[in-house]
Amino acid sequence: MKIGILGAGALGCAMGGVLTEAGHEVWLINRNADQVEAMNRRGLMLRTDGIDRTVAVHAATTAGGVAGGVVDLVIVLVKSFHTAEAMQGATSLLGPDTVVLSLQNGLGHEDVLAGIVGRRRLLAGKTYVGGTQLAPGHVIAGTRHKLTLIGEPDGGLSERVLRIAGMFNQAGLDTTVSESISGALWDKLLVNVATGALSGITRLPYGLLYQAPELEACAVAAVAEAMAVARASGITLSIAEPVDAWRMAGAGLPFEFKPSMLQSLEKGSITEIDFINGAVVRQGAQVGVPTPVNQTLLACIKGIERGLAGFAIK
Fold first, then answer.
1. Active site residues
2. Which residues, given as ranges, of the chain have pLDDT below 50?
3. What are the residues whose beta carbons fall under 8 Å from the beta carbon of 286, sequence distance 6 or more?
4. pTM for this one?
């Protein structure tokens, strides 16, 4: 397949690298010129189990740089707050049969994308694959034994979703088709709730984060709130206990792994907190479920973002 990865940061490069190795024509689209130049000049360097390998990839700063334009599949991995802008700038990738798959963190991206590309093109999904940026064009790839779930937004099975899942599996990306993807989206949200904000607040990578029982207790409490909100909203979860989300978040990832929220703060960028813990708080208010732990994590990250932006706290 010809694949465009829109928002090829650490995660996008990790997935794009293994898809390229499997023989697909993958275009890594990232507006960071240093990242793109490094990959085009010497290839993408992927580190797995401490060993680096180089993959010859195609990279571009805009969708307009993709040779031939139209692709078979667009994988959307931009930060949540950039979804509309990024997709509006990438319509040149769309042909009559192009499928658009969101694997972004948080909730609500499919509605934004549907307003730009049409709902008929969309697939929804979540991935537990991880990636950490080491340098331009050099990432730690946490792809092994990390599940990806994809499905039709309105449920059921289709030939296209089965074909794409098969292609992912052949590339070594463990992928399952869900006939009810809404529950899978919430399951992944629980994993993001468990570690994202806590890592961002403490600035700890996973190895150190998981050594602190106090942090585990806070994470489990935040997940328990989110699970209560999901159940009150009529969502069927596959995660049975709050601690399971905490364990899933770090399973198989290296000591130095950093979740995307921490990576964003280290770059001086705002985070996706509004689409993760913030989504729990908003939905909790709608269904009458209190979410004090998530409200506190949301407030702390918002405070850090204000500090990074240079605002004086009064």
1. 188
2. 312-314
3. 233
4. 0.80
